[in-house]
Amino acid sequence: MQEPPEAARPEPFADGLPGTATTRLFLALAPPDEAKEELTRALRPVTDAFPHMRWNRVEDWHITLAFLGEHPVATVPLLMPPLAALAARRSGLRLALRGGGHFDDRVLWSGVEGDRAGLHLLATEVRAVVRECGVSFVDRPFRPHLTLARSRRGEQRAVVEAAAGLALFSGRDWPAERLHLVGSNIGRGPGPMRYRDIAAWDFLAPGPAAG
Question: Do 182 and 195 form a contact (C-beta atoms < 8 A)?
């Protein structure tokens, strides 16, 4: 995900979507570059073995806390102040990317370990803020993961084998220090999904993330 020039401003996002009235929104955490590089190295044999899977761009890797679905762009200013306030009173988390798995033989993911209790609490708080803003979304159970790729039609077995290739991966822990509000233009083609930070806020309360 790309950082906006100023984290608390929706204007760069709106300017980047000329004529677009809606966008898909979600709240997420993003691994730091070092963690992404570590997983990229571990994935190399897997990506070489399964090049035809629909691999997500490394810069778009994220851990979704709440997927809000498609909303008018005008929804964004409603969400920003309360989300900024939530981040200001929260401390960061220490997380790690570990192992791999798949959903329905279609979606390949890396697991998330570390402060899972804190991660679940953060997801609960984020979703509560969204509901308090009057923004509707499907409140699916929170299953912490980082999506890596999707299978193409008729090639579901590749996801199962790719997940097995990640089973022994164990990344070092890292600090999750920012809450990201992310949007994607719904006018997508057949390639990987494209995401862009609308805003991101530092977790400001003292906590273990910087340890």
Answer: yes
pTM listed for this prediction: 0.86
Per-residue pLDDT 10s for the chain (211 aa) are 644 434 444 444 444 444 458 889 999 999 999 999 999 999 999 999 999 899 999 999 999 999 999 999 999 999 999 999 999 999 999 999 999 999 988 999 999 999 999 999 999 999 999 999 999 999 999 999 999 999 888 777 889 999 999 999 999 999 999 999 999 864 455 555 678 899 999 999 987 665 5
Q: Name 20's Cβ contacts closer than 8 Å, sequence gap at least 6.
A: 73, 185, 186, 187
Separation between Cα atoms, residue 57 and residue 54, nearest integer Å: 9
Strand stretches in 120-164, DSSP E: 145-150
Angle at 89 between CA 86 and CA 92, to 5 degrees: 95
